[in-house]
């Protein structure tokens, strides 16, 4: 770990929500990804539009967007944020037999949006799993990770 200390602990060591009141409002951006691997037949079912549950990619996209907006309700100590942009892109990948998910979150505010982007990507993947589990219980969600973040006191970071 770097010399930077964890900030969700108070002076007694108890968990707390960080006070960001004195931080400057800056543009904050984060990109996160996830990948859900599945049987080739499952991917083809999704792409053909033949799934009984309809357009599962569209549903997963909306679920990811909604999840980003509710991150503060899901992850303890996250601040409620007024996101100005959330996008979730789902790209089928026949070569790897799965779907790549890219989530981007933006705002102008006092704290970053990394958790929101990670939550969006994760929930989109979980939604695909939920909608397709009846035909493919062996799906695997992998590579959920932050790709980059910009803004704030710590500046930019890219994987």
From TrEMBL:
Protein name in UniProt: Cyclic pyranopterin monophosphate synthase
Catalytic activity: (8S)-3',8-cyclo-7,8-dihydroguanosine 5'-triphosphate = cyclic pyranopterin phosphate + diphosphate
Domain of life: Bacteria
Gene3D superfamilies: Molybdopterin cofactor biosynthesis C (MoaC) domain
An individual GO BP term: Mo-molybdopterin cofactor biosynthetic process
GO molecular function list: cyclic pyranopterin monophosphate synthase activity
Signal peptide, first to last residue: none
Pathway of action: Cofactor biosynthesis; molybdopterin biosynthesis
Keywords associated with the record: Lyase, Molybdenum cofactor biosynthesis
Binding site for substrate: 77-79, 115-116
Similarity remark: Belongs to the MoaC family.
